[in-house]
Design goal:
The chain is mainly α. Helix content is 47%, strand content 0%. The mean pLDDT is 86.
Length: 109
């Protein structure tokens, strides 16, 4: 990218990473550019991300996180085998995990 960070922006970048190593890219971008209205998706955010990558500077990426896996018992597997043709997967998950608040995005589903 043709756009580069100014010396002041580089100093602000270092400052926020020292103050808060867990800062997300959006937080880093807003602080570096001293503008709460921009985030990591903006032109400035893309410039900053490229700068971080080019200089091997690590930052926290909020979109990357591991969720725990859900393991099924033999009884739960049997229930699914016996009911998958007649029941929706979400309904089965709500029954199996006794949780009516589950959604189609829940791991249990």
């Amino acid at each position: 990218m043709d756009d580069i960070l100014t010396l002041e922006q580089k100093n602000r970048l270092i400052e926020i990473l020292q103050k808060n190593p867990e800062a997300t890219l959006t937080e880093i971008t807003a602080y570096t550019y001293n503008n709460e209205n921009i985030d990591s998706r903006s032109k400035e955010g893309r410039i900053l991300k490229q700068y971080l990558l080019d200089n091997n500077i690590e930052y926290k990426n909020r979109s990357v996180f591991q969720r725990d896996r859900v393991s099924l018992t033999k009884d739960q597997e049997e229930f699914i085998k016996n009911n998958y043709k007649n029941q929706h997967y979400l309904d089965m998950a709500k029954i199996l995990f006794k949780n009516n608040n589950l959604t189609h995005l829940s791991l249990e589903s």
